[in-house]
Please model this.
Amino acid sequence: MSVQELTSPRKKRKGTKDERLKRSQILLDVTRRCASLSNIQDVWKELVGMTSHELDCDRGTLFLNDKETNELFSFVAQGNLTREIRILNDSGIAGGVFQTGQSKISDDPYNDPMFNREVDQRTGYTTRNIACVPVRTMSGEKIGVMQTLNKRVGEFNEDDLELLEEMTTQAAVVLQGLQHYEQIDKIREKENAFLQLMSDINSEFELSRMLMRVVQEITAMLTAERATIFMFDQSTATLFSRVSAGGEINEIRFPS
Model:
């Protein structure tokens, strides 16, 4: 068996009383530990650590979906710092699982056409096997993907997938709430920046300085490399510009 894709609902294995009790305790721990955290990066670290431990694997990655860009994003620890990484939400095994909503085991990733080996090539890491599940809220909404790599003993199985699905569902409630609050904070930051810009414009009487300030703020708000404002000159029926973020330019004109 090299690749398994679960395209239909699986019957949950009941397990023994002790197994059910242990699983319930694991899920309670996920809820308790994630609910005590106040930002997405901390929940990400906690969930990756817990899933890697419980599935006895080398590492894991939690991807969340960015609806605005159609990308899956995650965080990579580098020393004491953490940087964000992004992939298209239809790219690789993670993207395929997100799009289909079907959990997947790949026991031979290098022969899996969906596997993106570029990360291994860049890092020198060798991925031997993968278990990947969609991250769903209690209502069934997909908000991301959880991926675990390189089981230490043997191969991933359906019990692993079931546990991984249940653990991520418990954490998804917290993740969704934090995403919502972060989006609200970003909106408020943009609103405050816009109000400050309007205040500065109203107090600025020199056209070039006012336009330069507007261009700088627009460029920052849209996270763009540069921006240009063109104004209409009624006397010549032309559009002209005097400032451009990203470098100084002389006045340019062209017919409107």
Q: What stands out?
A: The mean pLDDT is 79. The chain has two domains: 3-182, 204-255. The chain has six helices and ten strands. The longest strand covers residues 57-66.
